[in-house]
């Protein structure tokens, strides 16, 4: 198992999908600041056709607002999904999984090593995004927002988003394992990103019509990403978030491992 982890860590270090996704996610964070600053200056200092100064001002944004823009609007998770998909499918395209099994390595260890390193890579991408948001905020907004309360909110929100990410990544790894091809994976992932929350909300409406007060969408990991507040996070919400993320993590990991052990490697 240790040798498998070392091999996967080496592949992560050399992975183009990881470094390209990391670069894109940092550029995306910086572009949000640049867009805001350019738009703000254009509204305040722009001239209309008659030469008069346009009177207008954008709502003030802070570092925490940008952080939420990155994570809650599913921007960061798109880059993480690209990395996870390419990193996992790459082993099937290259025949690495088949080679590992040919050496007599246990199937569950092969899957678990890939799973753990994939989770690590996704978490590192999120940390890159958070660091880019923090440093970009200092460059564009200054240090006026940086205080004890800021760090508490920043770290609390980031920790919860990382928690959700582990559950979400487990789901994507499971889908990669079950499809093992780019076309099937693309359809599945796009469906999850674009329609999963809407479909589950539709199920909630049907249940409500039938007199059932239980909300299924509330316990979907991507709904939790969207609902997470940046400040004033209650203890009850933290506990609920932990259960949601852990539930999807355990179920997806278990299902993926069972499928990997029973499915033939081609």
Structure characteristics:
266 residues, mainly alpha
In short:
The protein is an all-alpha fold and 266 residues long. The chain has helices at 2-14, 16-45, 63-71, 75-94, 96-102, 107-141, 148-179, 182-209, 221-227, 235-262.
Number of DSSP helical runs: 10
Helix-strand topology string? HHHHHHHHHH
What's the oligomerization state? single chain
Q: Provide the low-confidence segments as ranges.
A: 47-55
Mean pLDDT: 81
Largest sheet report = none
Number of strands: 0
C-alpha Rg (nearest Å): 21 Å
- Proportion of strand residues: under 5%
Describe the structure.
Residues 47-55 have low confidence and may be disordered. The longest helix is centred in the middle third of the chain and has 35 residues, at 107-141. This protein has 266 residues and is mainly alpha-helical. It has helices spanning 2-14, 16-45, 63-71, 75-94, 96-102, 107-141, 148-179, 182-209, 221-227, 235-262. Helix 3 packs antiparallel against helix 6 (107-141) and helix 6 (107-141) runs antiparallel to helix 7 (148-179). It has ten helices and no strands. Helix content is 79%, strand content 0%. The chain is globular, with a radius of gyration of 21 Å.
């Amino acid at each position: 198992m240790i040798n498998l982890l070392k091999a996967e860590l080496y592949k992560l270090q050399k992975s183009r999908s990881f470094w390209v996704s990391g670069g894109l996610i940092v550029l995306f964070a910086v572009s949000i600041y640049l867009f805001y600053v350019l738009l703000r200056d254009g509204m305040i200092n722009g001239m209309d056709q008659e030469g008069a100064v346009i009177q207008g001002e954008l709502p003030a944004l802070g570092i925490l607002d940008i952080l939420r823009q990155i994570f809650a609007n599913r921007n960061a998770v798109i880059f993480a999904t690209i990395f996870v998909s390419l990193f996992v499918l790459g082993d099937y395209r290259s025949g690495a999984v088949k080679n590992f099994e040919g050496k007599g390595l246990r199937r569950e260890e092969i899957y678990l090593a890939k799973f753990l390193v994939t989770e690590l890579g996704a978490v590192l991408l999120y940390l890159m995004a958070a660091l880019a948001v923090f440093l970009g905020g200092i460059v564009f907004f200054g240090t006026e927002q940086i205080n004890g309360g800021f760090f508490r909110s920043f770290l609390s929100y980031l920790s919860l988003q990382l928690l959700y990410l582990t559950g979400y990544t487990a789901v994507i790894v499971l889908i990669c394992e079950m499809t093992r091809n780019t076309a099937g994976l693309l359809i599945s992932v796009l469906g999850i990103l674009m329609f999963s929350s809407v479909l589950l909300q539709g199920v909630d409406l049907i249940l409500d019509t039938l007199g059932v007060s239980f909300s299924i969408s509330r316990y979907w990991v991507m709904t939790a990403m969207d609902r997470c507040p940046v400040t004033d996070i209650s203890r009850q919400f933290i506990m609920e978030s932990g259960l949601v993320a852990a539930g999807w993590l355990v179920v997806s990991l278990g299902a993926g491992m069972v499928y990997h052990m029973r499915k033939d490697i081609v």
